[in-house]
Amino acid sequence: MPNPHKVVVLVLEGALPLDVGIPAEVFHPDTGFPYEVSACGVVAGTVPSNGGFGYAVPHGLEALADADTIIVPGYAPSGRPIPAEVCDALRSAASHGVRIASICYGAFALADAGLLDGLRATTHWDAAEKLAKRHPQISVEPNVLFVDEGSVLTSAGAAAGLDLCLHIVRSDLGVGPANEIARGLVTAPFRSGGQAQYLPKAVDASQGETLAATREWALTQLAEPVTIAELAAHARMSARTFLRRFAEETGTTPLQWILRARVDTARELLESTRMPVDQIADQVGLGTGANLRLHFRRLLDTSPSEYRATFAGRS
Which CATH architecture has domain 5-196? Predict the structure, then answer.
């Protein structure tokens, strides 16, 4: 019988409980698949968690040298500096061909170790901008559930770690074992879409004082075509000055901002009503259901029907 694939979960101070538990469940040998899972910290002992309790880890960083796969759960606060010896241990493991994955904010540990340089990566949506600013050499993809760059993988926030771990099982053993483990965990073996659908509303009318009133007005006009000239007139500015001020306050163009507002309003209607998709599209100013589906797929990486099933529930 071949030796089991050794998965080591690196538990850092402030580790998030769900992030630690996911790989422990997915790779537990009781699943019947050839995995062995253990936990380590910087040193053996008790590691304080983010939830007011601690993790008893039997090993220190030396356990990483014997791993086939290392998983770094998220820890709080996001981006907190990690000990230099952790970076050294992760780099050493990577140089020996160990597969290394992160869940949620754990991506910051991989980034600090230099393992994500020149690669695509993701993390929880609320820390993606921080990761991109701190490590501009990384191509941060904030909307996906996970990114697989071969020997280095990263996942989005919290439950996306489950998507990542099941993906690792599919890569190692095939679809069947991944589906069987998912059934045991009572979860979907594969989720469509990305984490963009879980973000809060993308637009904020109050952002920036100068044009806040005009943006508030624009939100009342979503069902109708709104032109730059009309927006500028409401703000009592020339079109050129309006466009400049709008970009300064929101970081985007008025038409892109209105599009996101229309999609956000459609999200609210999908969650709270049973209105048909075509009717919602007309009410938010996107015209047809096909147009709404196009923008949903482009901005949220899902469809209106899938979004409704996720956030409003099935009747």
Answer: 3-Layer(aba) Sandwich (3.40)
